[in-house]
């Protein structure tokens, strides 16, 4: 039963990846071009998430101080 759930999850992830390829038109690229594009995308998203994680608390506290919600 666990193997069946794993197979179903793998099939679902494959379907999502196929949809991603179709929506972004990456299916037209060669495999190495697709790898470069996906690597750049993951890097940019990772940097954006890290930057948000590091700097958002400071900005939120500044906003809360500005509106005098926090003293």
Describe this structure in words.
There is one protein chain. Helices cover 83% and strands 0% of the residues. It has 71 residues and is an all-alpha fold. The longest helix has 36 residues, at 31-66. 0% of the residues are buried.
Key terms:
71 residues, 83% helix
In short:
The protein is mostly helical and 71 residues long. The protein has 2 helices and no strands. The model has no long low-confidence stretch (mean pLDDT 95).
How far apart are the termini?
Answer: 55 Å
The assigned structural class equals mainly alpha
How helix-rich are the residues, as a percent range? over 70%
Care to count the β-strands?
0
Strand portion, in percent? under 5%
Work out the radius of gyration.
20 Å
Number of helices: 2
Name the poorly predicted regions.
Answer: none
Give the secondary structure arrangement, pairings included.
Elements: H1 2-24, H2 31-66
Transmembrane segments: 12-29, 35-56
GO biological process, one term: ceramide biosynthetic process
Membrane topology: Multi-pass membrane protein
């Amino acid at each position: 039963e666990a193997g069946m759930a794993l197979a179903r999850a793998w099939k679902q992830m494959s379907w999502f990846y196929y949809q991603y390829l179709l929506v972004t038109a990456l299916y037209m690229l060669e495999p190495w071009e697709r790898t470069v594009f996906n690597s750049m995308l993951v890097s940019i998203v990772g940097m954006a998430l890290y930057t948000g994680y590091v700097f958002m608390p400071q900005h939120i506290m500044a906003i809360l101080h500005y509106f005098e919600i926090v003293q």
